[in-house]
């Protein structure tokens, strides 16, 4: 609508100026009017072909036509994304053309006596008119074009930042989901390690207690005491685990009405505390292996422990992982090879610690299983623990019919 209105005004102006042009050129007035209408209507395509509009305005400058066409064309040309040399060249041509035409027209007027000013007025009028019709539209067009490009650049940057923020939010959500899954897996592994071994020994002792209750009351009392001790140990470890989980729940309860930043800090602190308590805090260590093996021996398993190398301490996570591997391996022997002789080997090396738990075939085919349920996650959990510390885990049946679990964990 704007371009149509400007083109209509330009056509009317050029058509009116075409009358004088036709008289000066000695051509029919109707031809001058049509020529002016056609020339002025070129402004309709100023956005698509600004160079053509400026060239037409320069071409009809000697006929003293198209002042609106020239001004609007130069403004559109300067505001477009064209090389500056093209804009400067066309603006210079328009400036020179306007100056020459004005110089000639003013000189003719002075010669005919219409103007009685001095000779200095001719160049002054030519330069002033040329600059007045050329410089303002060019400068305004350059400013508007630069401002438009700046706004487009800022808008593109804002869109880019919005896309980046959205992508970061999606990645943060993915990382949060991954962290939740890892936390659930870790807690499930800890619960399995805590419960499976203790409860397995309790079931074995309960079966032995049922068998000897009438024949050997003293042994039955000892087995009952062992079952009670193991139950209390299992409850203590479970209470520690549940305490960590409740700490996370308390953070969620306190989040109501608390700023988001504070909630995030509290959640991060709870997560860090959970990791420290479960992974690096007080827990089982290699010095407790003798007690662990003694509990299995008290349940009727024949277990021998062999230690190689110089005994030394390791990081808490390394010792806990080594302990859990041996514990889970003994639990599997209770479950699947009750009564089988088991060999536990622990090797302290220069930069790593190695452990191996190997059981022989059960003495009686009917005693291969103690009737304990198995979820099939024990070996998976051991492998995850060892691999998480950069170690190597191998398990499988032996040629003699038993089963072997081996793991090597870096000392650092």
> How is the largest sheet built, in terms of strand order?
1-2-3-5-4
Give a quick account of the main beta sheet: strands, pairing sense, barrel closure: 5 strands, mixed
Helix content: 55-70%
Q: How large a portion of the residues is in β-strands, by DSSP E? A: 5-15%
Beta strands, count: 5
Distance between the termini: 77 Å
**Number of separate helices:** 11
Given as residue ranges, the uncertain stretches (5+ residues, pLDDT < 50) are: 254-258, 260-281
Cα radius of gyration in angstroms = 47 Å
Provide a short characterization of the protein structure.
The protein is of the alpha+beta class.
Describe this structure in words.
Residues 183-248 form the Signal transduction histidine kinase subgroup 3 dimerisation and phosphoacceptor domain. Its EC number is 2.7.13.3. The protein has 412 residues and is an alpha+beta fold. Among the domains are: 2-160, no CATH class; 285-412, Heat Shock Protein 90. The protein is built from eleven helices and five strands. It has a five-stranded mixed β-sheet with strand order 1-2-3-5-4, covered by helices on one side. Strand 2 and strand 3 form a beta hairpin. Helix 6 packs across helix 10 (316-336) and helix 9 (289-298) runs parallel beside helix 10 (316-336).
């Amino acid at each position: 609508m704007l371009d149509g209105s400007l083109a209509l005004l330009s056509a009317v102006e050029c058509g009116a100026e075409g009358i004088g042009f036709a008289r000066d050129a000695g051509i029919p007035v109707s031809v001058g009017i049509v020529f002016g209408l056609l020339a002025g209507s070129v402004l309709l395509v100023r956005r698509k072909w600004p160079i053509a509009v400026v060239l037409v305005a320069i071409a009809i400058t000697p006929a003293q036509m198209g002042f609106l066409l020239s001004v609007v064309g130069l403004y559109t040309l300067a505001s477009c994304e064209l090389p500056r040399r093209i804009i400067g060249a066309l603006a210079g041509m328009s400036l020179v053309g306007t100056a020459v035409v004005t110089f000639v027209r003013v000189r003719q007027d002075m010669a005919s006596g219409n103007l009685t000013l001095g000779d200095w007025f001719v160049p002054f009028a030519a330069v002033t008119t040329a600059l007045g019709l050329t410089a303002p539209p060019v400068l305004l067009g350059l400013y508007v074009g630069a401002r438009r490009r700046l706004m487009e650049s800022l808008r593109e940057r804002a869109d880019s930042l919005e896309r980046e923020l959205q992508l970061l939010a999606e990645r943060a959500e993915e990382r949060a989901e991954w962290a939740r899954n890892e936390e659930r897996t870790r807690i499930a592994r800890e619960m399995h390690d805590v419960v499976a071994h203790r409860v397995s020994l309790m079931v074995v002792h309960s079966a032995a207690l049922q068998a000897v209750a009438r024949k050997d009351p003293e042994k039955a009392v000892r087995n009952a005491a062992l079952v009670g001790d193991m139950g209390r140990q299992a409850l203590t470890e479970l209470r520690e685990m549940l305490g960590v989980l409740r700490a996370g729940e308390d953070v969620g309860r306190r989040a109501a009405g608390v700023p988001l930043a504070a909630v995030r800090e509290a959640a991060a602190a709870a997560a860090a505390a959970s990791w420290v308590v479960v992974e690096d805090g007080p827990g089982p260590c290699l010095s407790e292996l003798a007690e662990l093996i003694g509990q299995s021996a008290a349940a009727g398993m024949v277990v021998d422990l062999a230690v190689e190398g110089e005994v030394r301490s390791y990081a808490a996570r390394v010792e806990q992982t080594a302990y859990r591997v041996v514990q889970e391996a003994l639990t599997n022997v209770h479950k699947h090879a009750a009564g089988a002789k088991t060999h536990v080997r622990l090797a302290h090396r220069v930069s790593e610690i190695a452990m191996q738990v190997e059981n022989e075939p059960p003495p009686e085919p009917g005693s291969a299983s103690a009737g304990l349920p198995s979820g099939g996650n024990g070996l998976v959990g051991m492998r995850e623990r060892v691999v998480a510390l950069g170690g190597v885990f191998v398990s499988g049946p032996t040629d003699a019919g038993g089963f072997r679990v081996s793991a090597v964990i870096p000392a650092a």
